[in-house]
Amino acid sequence: MRTRPAARAGQYAALLAYLIFLAFPFLWLLSTAFKPPRELGSLHPTWIPRHPTLANFRQAFDEQPLLHAALNSLLAALGAAVVAVLIATPMAYVMARHRTRLARAASGWVVVSQAFPFVLIIIPLFLVLKRLRLIDSLAGLTLVYVVWSLPFALWMLVGYVRAVPVELEEAAAVDGAGRLRTLVSVTAPLLAPGIAATALFAFVTAWNEFFFALVLLKSPGNQTLPVVLTHFIGAEGVADLGPLAAAAFLATLPSLVVFGLLQRRITGGLIAGAVKS
Question: Whose CB among 82, 138, 150, 223 lies 3.0–4.6 Å from 227's, allowing a Cys bridge?
Answer without folding.
Answer: 223
